[in-house]
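Long-time lurker, first post. I've been practising inverse folding by hand and with some scripts of my own, and I keep getting stuck on stretches where the structure tokens seem ambiguous. Below is the full token string for one chain I'm working on. Before anyone asks, I'm not after the true native sequence, just a reasonable design that respects the backbone. If someone could post their per-position residues I'd love to compare against what I wrote down in my notebook.
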């Protein structure tokens, strides 16, 4: 299992932390991929609790990388493991994971729509920071559906960082997961997706949004290799 040491912790807001790690070898990741951290908190006699985190930094740097996590109310690994990690402490993980990103043809040159909900914006950020995207994609629209301004990474950071790559950035407020995301909410996102026409799609975050979006695109006959997905929760 690869190992990395915590080099720096930054508090971004009351529930969001950025952790920078350093490694002795190259991680070998592509922007948009993730690692699975071993929390060392035992689940049973054989297994520990493990959680996935997107590599939020650019793939131009491979010996150090950053993850950004949101501390969830009762969240086990965020509260009991990530919050307690100390500088120089080593973590073990597996990865990098994220199969479709290895596909050289994803995303096609042309128009790309990225739809991220909640913390899923981490995948969009990482993908947009990758060497491949910087050199290839010129026409990207990004829609981020998020419960509040201080839910995760700041809206300003997203706008500033990607203003050159992202043509149209729209951030929309939505109900928090578990508090009013019913048929009306998912149905309205489906209607929005129905009206879109892009060469490639990248959907990440709430599983219900990702699943419905992908199903709809497949029904319309969209090339499956041009639909990247990442379900963070609500599997
Ligand atoms: C491929 C992938 C990449 C991910 N990348 C990131 C990342 O970069 N940053 C990050 O903060 N998280 C990321 N996640 C989510 C992460 O793996 C954990 O699920 C999350 O940190 C909660 O873990 P926990 O043990 O603290 O909470 P748990 O004890 O697992 O409880 C979480 C509970 O909160 C609910 N929930 C509500 N909102 C969310 C939300 N936004 N995310 C997860 N669960 C939610 C879940 O359904 C669940 O019931 C990613 C998940 C996947 C699958």
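-- Answer (accepted) --
I ran through it position by position. Result:
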């Amino acid at each position: 299992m690869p190992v990395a040491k915590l080099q720096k912790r930054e508090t971004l807001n009351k529930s969001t932390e950025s952790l920078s790690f350093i490694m002795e070898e190259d991680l070998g990741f592509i922007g948009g991929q993730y690692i699975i951290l071993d929390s060392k908190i035992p689940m049973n006699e054989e297994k520990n609790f493990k959680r996935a985190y997107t590599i939020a930094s650019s793939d131009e740097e491979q010996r150090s990388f950053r993850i950004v996590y949101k501390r969830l109310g009762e969240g086990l690994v965020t509260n009991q493991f990530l919050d307690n990690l100390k500088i120089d402490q080593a973590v073990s993980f597996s990865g990098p994971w994220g199969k479709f990103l290895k596909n050289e043809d994803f995303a096609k040159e042309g128009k790309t729509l990225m739809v991220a909900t909640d913390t899923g914006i981490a995948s969009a950020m990482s993908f947009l920071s990758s060497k491949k995207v910087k050199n290839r994609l010129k026409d990207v629209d990004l829609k981020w559906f998020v419960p509040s301004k201080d839910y995760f990474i700041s809206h300003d950071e997203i706008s500033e960082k990607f203003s050159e790559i992202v043509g149209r950035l729209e951030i929309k407020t939505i109900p928090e997961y578990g508090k009013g995301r019913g048929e009306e909410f998912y149905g309205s996102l489906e209607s929005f997706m129905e009206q879109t026409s892009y060469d490639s799609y990248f959907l990440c975050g709430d599983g219900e949004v990702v699943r419905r979006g992908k199903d709809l695109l497949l029904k319309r006959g969209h090339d499956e290799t041009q639909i990247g997905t990442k379900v963070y929760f609500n599997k």
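A couple of notes from the structure itself: Residues 34, 51-54, 67-70, 72, 75-78, 118-119, 122, 177, 230, 232-234 surround flavin-adenine dinucleotide (CB under 6 Å). The chain has six helices and eleven strands. Happy to go over any region you disagree with.
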